Amino acid sequence: MTTAGIIYNEIKPTACRIAQELKDKLESRGWKVVTATGIGGILGYSRPDSPVCHTPIDRLAPPGFDAQMQFAIVLGGDGTVLSACRQLAPIGIPLLTVNTGHMGFLTETYLNKLPEAIEQVLTGNYSVEDRDMLIVQVLRDQTVLWEALSLNEMVLHKEPLTGMCHFEVDIGQHARVDIAADGLIISTPTGSTAYALSAGGPVITPGVSVLQLVPICPHSLASRALVFANSESARIYPANPFKHLVMMVDGNAGCFVLPADIVQVQRSPYCARFIRLRSPEFFHVLREKLGWGLPHVAKPTSVELP
Length: 306
Known about the structure:
- The protein has helices at residues 13-28, 78-88, 114-122, 195-198, 282-290; strands at residues 3-8, 32-37, 71-76, 95-99, 109-110, 127-140, 143-150, 153-158, 165-171, 177-181, 183-187, 210-216, 226-229, 234-238, 245-249, 253-257, 262-276.
- The chain has 306 residues and is α+β, with helices and mostly antiparallel strands.
- It folds into two domains: 3-131 and 270-290, 3-Layer(aba) Sandwich (Rossmann fold), CATH 3.40.50.10330; 134-269, Probable inorganic polyphosphate/atp-NAD kinase, domain 2 (Tumour Suppressor Smad4).
- A six-stranded antiparallel sheet has the order 7-6-17-14-9-10, with helices on one face.
- A hairpin with a 5-residue loop joins strand 9 (165-171) and strand 10 (177-181).
- The protein is globular, with a radius of gyration of 21 Å.
- It starts with a strand and ends in a 16-residue tail after the last helix.
């Protein structure tokens, strides 16, 4: 029996209702349907006195979800999509993402178009777009204390955020650099339109094999965003004696980072796999969601001289 999955945001009544309706519809057509909430992809918070607080990245898949599943439908906003990616990327399940939230930058379709989208997927009339992800780890004495998959970005900053930190950063085999800033962001091309964009980083089109490092409010005119090959890993050494830092992944969960810890960020062997119902058009998404490329004033067809 062919299997499909549904991951939904359990705190949104609309998502819960649609999940049940979809399950009934697919089962009536002979499909086996497995459901789960997005909470399984929510990452834990560690504390200075209890730093080990995570589930290994290859053990987040919900029961019943495996590599034989044809596809999974995700019902929620961007947070639910990010959670589903962490749950299902290690087993390679393609995701049809449906916006039941607000911006829905990562979603493919809307609720009012869902019936047509389901029919299109059931007939196999779609493509799959792979998006790079990161593996983010906190190391202490060569031991992994915390790790997570990330589709968007890793952020490392002081607590509270408004306070300058010093970071020493190794990228690949290049010389170590020192950065003074309120924090650091390392993002994927997908994450270049999220926190990294707000911090002054460039927009990077999906499919470009790079990562970027963006200082948050740097204390130097020379500290600017750096784009580097995703074949190179980054290692960050906090240069702040006696003070801990806070690390966030995809705006979802955190880990305290002590002065002796190392934060390692590298491209993951797992990709987030998105079902596309039409040819991916990144500039259209930028226009629709962020207003990029729209004319600022109307251009007259002719000019009349006084």
